[in-house]
Design goal:
147 residues; mainly beta; 3-stranded antiparallel β-sheet
Length: 147
């Protein structure tokens, strides 16, 4: 037996779908804070001399025959899982010039990001020296004039 035909009066139009407007709040990612000074530490593996020093971003600093140039220094954003300092730097190896002899050209010993929490992640590979990032910080404010 066949089903009886359905008349148009029995068929109701399908309800129009309600516009489902989901308001997504897009939050801008929290940016890492940039600092103008990196605190680095170097070790002379021959003499076991360790030296902690400050390197301003963009200004080369010499430690024995190494020249450190920090290009950027950042601290983790508050929404990141690990509180860390990260610095992008280049390290050139160039012996000090001797009087009466030509200055030898610098050779790049390291270029890349260093992480304070993981000094072995991207280490400086040099036969005599080790170096690693301690932290990033702001430069000390200039002394206020005395009144």
């Amino acid at each position: 037996m066949a089903a009886p035909p359905i008349s148009e009066k029995e068929v109701a139009p399908a309800p129009a779908p309600k516009a489902q407007v989901e308001e997504k709040v897009v939050e801008a990612p929290v940016r890492r804070l940039r600092y103008d000074v990196a605190v680095l530490q170097a070790l002379d593996k021959v003499t076991a001399e360790s030296f902690r020093f400050v390197a301003a971003v963009g200004r080369p600093v010499r430690y024995k025959s190494l020249i450190f140039t920090v290009k950027a220094c950042e601290r983790s954003a508050p929404d990141e899982a690990i509180d860390d300092s990260i610095a992008y730097l280049t390290v050139d190896s160039q012996p000090r010039p001797e009087p009466g002899k030509p200055t030898l050209p610098a050779r790049q010993a390291y270029k890349g990001w260093m992480y304070a929490s993981s000094p072995g992640l991207h280490p400086l590979e040099h036969p005599v020296y080790d170096a690693w990032l301690i932290t990033c910080r702001a430069a000390a404010p200039p002394n206020a004039p005395a009144r």
